Amino acid sequence: MNLLKKLDGMTFRLSCTALMVIGVTACTPDKQITETPVVAAKPKNVILFIGDGMGVSTVTAIRIYEGQLRGMSGEENTLSWEAFPRVALSKTYNTNQQVPDSAGTATAIYTGVKTKAGVLGVGPDVIRADCASTPGTELPTILELAEEQGLSTGVVTTARLTHATPGASYAHISERDWEADSEMPKEALEQGCKDVALQFVDFNKGNGIEVALGGGRRNFLPATMIDPEYAIKTGERHDGRDLTREWQAKHPDGAYVWNAEQFAAIDPAATDRLLGLFEPGHMQYDYDRTKDGSREPSLAEMTEKAIKVLSRNDKGYFLMVEGGRIDHGHHDGRAAMALTDGVALNEAVKMADSLTDDADTLIIVTADHSHTFIMAGYPTRGNPILGKVIGNDDHGNPEKTYSLMEDGKPYTTLGYQNGPGGIWPADDHHYERRDLTDVDTTDPEFVQQALLPRKSETHGGEDVAIYAKGAGAEKIGGVMEQNLIFDALKQVLPSEK
């Protein structure tokens, strides 16, 4: 038999061979042991969190940043999902790209099929931005399958509701940028392809998506209509249609809201369906949201209300929650924005965990891809994660001044391989790194320095982490192809055994 041995509060299972080494001879060899296999529970509900662009280095930086916000050194901190018992790595490449985009990766997660970059809900045989190649390539998504089997479904994001990660859950289109008809070529419209916003309103699986919260209001409003929040902005649809009104007409049991006050007034116990579009474009970075008086709900608040509405269905639900602006902070080269939105995702995961039971709910936290984001430079323990590097002296104690690079200038712990903070030439023959001595690098508007100059920083291609807990979490483990996450998600379907 196997014996358990406790050492300093930790429990180890020792094999027969190991026991013999420490002098225990009365032992049945492991190969003769017959144990009753553990039968994992089937989840009634599945909540998938996607931290867009949240690679492993980003998770580490969020961990330290969140800890330092609470007065800790930071390195010893633990984020909500880091306490989940199942951890794996996801290989994120697209079928045609070594470093992926969010459309292809989201499609892989939702459908179980890897596909090309830039396409939503269609297989790799499609030709990007070619409407005529779409028919026959459509892939059923987990959200559609859940609706067809009577479950409730929800999509929550801080990006536009029509953006790649949320859009791939309900739309089938050969070009991710066709979010409104105004963004489509005439040929595609004549061939009958529908933009992503229109596909959301025309969604006809089951009884329709119960909860959809995010930004992207402009893609639902006609260009002749002034935005209800910003008098200088209008909708972007050229077909003259107000899709918010069409959605309300199609779903008289539903509520449409566009600001935090309206959202707060929604009683989830008395609401069957909820659509919230809180910005013309993406929702605000969480830093700006709190500074702006919270005119739109937080990701945790949207997650809470979504779960409470969806939980009214006794059959269960599927919910996708995206921290979409982590990705945008990285693209802008502004690490502070990415990390602040990472903290917001952490709060959303904590909220979901507190409202659900591991016995019937599977929670998965992952990323669609990484970024060229790095931590480096030997900073001393507890050095501000957004600050300039202060190293240790020869005796292991913090230095009194900033560490310097070979050019005699200080540098930050966080940086990028490429991006807006790259070393742009001052003239045709002169490249010089900016001196950060008198720069407050903890300012949320600070753009981290990068090696290569690029207007928008790029994604990274390394594996990202997957964290899971609850019923069916044993499906997550090892190094996985990203599309195999779908095998864990589909356990929520009543027909899946």
What can you tell me about this protein's structure?
- With 497 residues, this protein is an alpha/beta fold.
- The protein folds into two domains: 3-31, no CATH class; 45-374 and 458-492, Alkaline Phosphatase, subunit A (3-Layer(aba) Sandwich), CATH 3.40.720.10.
- The protein is built from 14 helices and 19 strands.
- It has a ten-stranded mixed beta sheet, sandwiched between helices. Strands 12-13-16 form a three-stranded mixed beta sheet. Strands 1-2 form a two-stranded antiparallel ribbon.
- Helix 2 (56-69) crosses helix 13 (335-355), helix 11 runs parallel beside helix 13 and helix 12 (325-331) packs antiparallel against helix 13.
The side-by-side strand order for the widest beta sheet comes to 7-8-6-5-9-3-10-18-4-19
Shape descriptor: globular
- Strand element count: 19
CATH names the topology of the largest domain as Alkaline Phosphatase, subunit A
Count of separate structural domains: 2
Structural class: alpha/beta
Strand proportion, as a percent range, falls in 15-25%
CATH architecture of the largest domain: 3-Layer(aba) Sandwich
Put simply, the count of helices is: 14
Provide the gyration radius in Å.
Answer: 25 Å
Looking at this structure, what is the CATH superfamily of the largest domain? Alkaline Phosphatase, subunit A
Question: What does the largest sheet look like?
Answer: 10 strands, mixed
Identify the notable features of this structure and list them briefly:
497 residues, alpha/beta, 10-stranded mixed β-sheet, 3-stranded mixed β-sheet, 23% helix, globular
